[in-house]
Write a structure and sequence with these properties.
Blueprint lengths: L3 H10 L37 H13 L4 H14 L5 H12 L4 H8 L12 H11 L21
Helix pairs in contact: 2-3, 2-4
Length: 154
């Protein structure tokens, strides 16, 4: 087992540009200065975006989340709801999935593990929470195939 001094020496021997690795523990004195936070650009509404382009972008963004739970939840929700949403609902959904910087927040709000902040409490969030309850007990183990995009509307 390496000691803290050994880890420092090891990291110095590998070059000054490499970050040190090792377990630091959860001590109360932890300054967390070793964490790197990359700021995300602020969400901006796109008022001049055509509805078809907005739906396509939101479908893509619903499928590519960075965490499997939201990829499944949001891609299936998007398949079921995006085409019937009004422009106002699309804007609310856009803000919901793109403004929070932590995808876990969206998941916790949708599953009601945490209360939804007032700014996101709207009819789209109600729709997402209802969808998340999966009252029909559907198997939701994978994202939907994209073939449905090319099927004629009924």
């Amino acid at each position: 087992m390496a000691t803290a001094m050994g880890l420092r020496l090891l990291s110095l021997s590998r070059g000054a540009l490499r970050a040190r690795r090792g377990y630091r523990g959860g001590s109360p004195a932890d300054s967390r200065k070793d964490l790197l936070e990359i700021p995300l650009p602020p969400w901006q509404e796109r008022p001049s975006e055509p509805l078809q382009a907005k739906r396509a972008r939101l479908l893509y963004e619903s499928r590519k989340r960075g965490m499997l739970e939201n990829c499944l939840l949001l891609s299936l929700f998007a398949k079921e709801n995006l085409n019937s949403m009004t422009e106002r609902q699309l804007n609310l959904y856009d803000r919901l999935i793109n403004e929070p910087s932590n995808d876990w927040d969206i998941y916790y709000w949708a599953t009601e593990a945490k209360p939804t902040p007032e700014v996101f409490e709207n009819d789209v969030m109600v729709m997402l929470r209802e969808f998340t309850k999966n009252k029909n007990k559907e198997q939701r183990l994978r994202q939907p195939d994209l073939e449905y995009l090319f099927e004629p509307s009924q």
